[in-house]
Amino acid sequence: MTLIDNHEAVGMEGAPRLSEASARDYFELLKPRVMSLVVFTAFAGLVLAPGQINPVIGFIAILCIAVGAGASGALNMWYDADIDAVMTRTAQRPIPAGKVLPQEALAFGLTLSAFSVTILGLAVNWFAAGLLAFTIFFYVVIYTMWLKRSTPQNIVIGGAAGAFPPMIGWACVTGGISIESIVLFLIIFLWTPAHFWALALFKMRDYDAVGVPMMPNVCGEATTKRQIVVYAVLTALSGICPTLLGFASLGYGAFAAAMGLGFVWYSLGVLRMPEGDKRMLPAKKLFGFSIAYLFAIFSALLADLLIAGIWRGGIV
């Protein structure tokens, strides 16, 4: 049985029924791949922030951010179950596959949202908790319910939701935000369009089938390719900002510049891709490299901090 109604599911006699979902099915609702990126960038923000945080409190903070991200994913799947059932990339998600009922996913997501925000506020600080609550709201209401189905700029504006985690991690330590945390936010925010539009290029048919106005479907391949290059350049420039602003070393800056050039190079490959290319290999390569780029940039920032600490400690 396939369920595509994301508002209500009933049994044969009209009475609400419960699914026989496994723990794995509920775990899949959390979008674990997306959560791993959220956890990593939030951890980077927490570690890079000036000051100290008790390791136990730090662990609780990261756990709450992870749970909040998972809650967002569950609520996104609840609302998007109708289009997920049609798209090949998402048809086997727990709700359209009939493993989890929509109302169960909704209750699960709301419960985790309340839990993550409350515990973060009580254990860490309420500014960080408020930022987490806003991030969940932004992703579920602003992006999923509004922007995603109404404008080809959906991922540009909605991408802010995925850019907040390092800022939340920073706020867990400092109780506020700063130019440094804003730069971490901007790196992800500017990275998102090129990353996601590369995916949209080779999944155009899926988005067209469900009426989601992604950039390639609405504005065409040529416009999308040009905008991918623009955002790749902006991402490359944002990647070196930590060095320009003095909170990362020249070594990091050189590495970030090299990775940024790689990002631009792959985007130019997409720009040169023939119109109507069914294989879309350059777009697939850019999509893969973009994931590696973001992990590499934040790993380099952490490594740079570690090396600087060793140097100041007199070990080197």
UniProtKB/TrEMBL annotation:
Membrane topology annotation: Multi-pass membrane protein
Major place of residence: membrane
Annotated keywords: Cell membrane, Heme biosynthesis, Membrane, Transferase, Transmembrane, Transmembrane helix
BP GO terms, sorted: heme O biosynthetic process
Pathway(s) where this gene product acts: Porphyrin-containing compound metabolism; heme O biosynthesis; heme O from protoheme: step 1/1
EC top class, as a word: transferase
Catalytic activity: heme b + (2E,6E)-farnesyl diphosphate + H2O = Fe(II)-heme o + diphosphate
Any single Gene Ontology cellular-component annotation: plasma membrane
EC numbers, comma separated: 2.5.1.141
PROSITE patterns, A to Z: UBIA
Molecular function as annotated in GO: protoheme IX farnesyltransferase activity
Transmembrane segments: 34-53, 59-79, 100-120, 126-147, 154-176, 182-202, 228-248, 254-274, 286-311
Coiled-coil intervals: none
Listed InterPro entries: Protohaem_IX_farnesylTrfase (IPR006369), UbiA_prenyltransferase (IPR000537), UbiA_prenylTrfase_CS (IPR030470), UbiA_sf (IPR044878)
Pfam families the UniProt entry points to: UbiA
Compartment(s) of residence: Cell membrane
Family that this chain belongs to: Belongs to the UbiA prenyltransferase family. Protoheme IX farnesyltransferase subfamily.
Miscellaneous remark of the record: Carbon 2 of the heme B porphyrin ring is defined according to the Fischer nomenclature.
Function: Converts heme B (protoheme IX) to heme O by substitution of the vinyl group on carbon 2 of heme B porphyrin ring with a hydroxyethyl farnesyl side group.
Protein name: Protoheme IX farnesyltransferase
Species this protein is from: Sinorhizobium saheli
Gene: ctaB
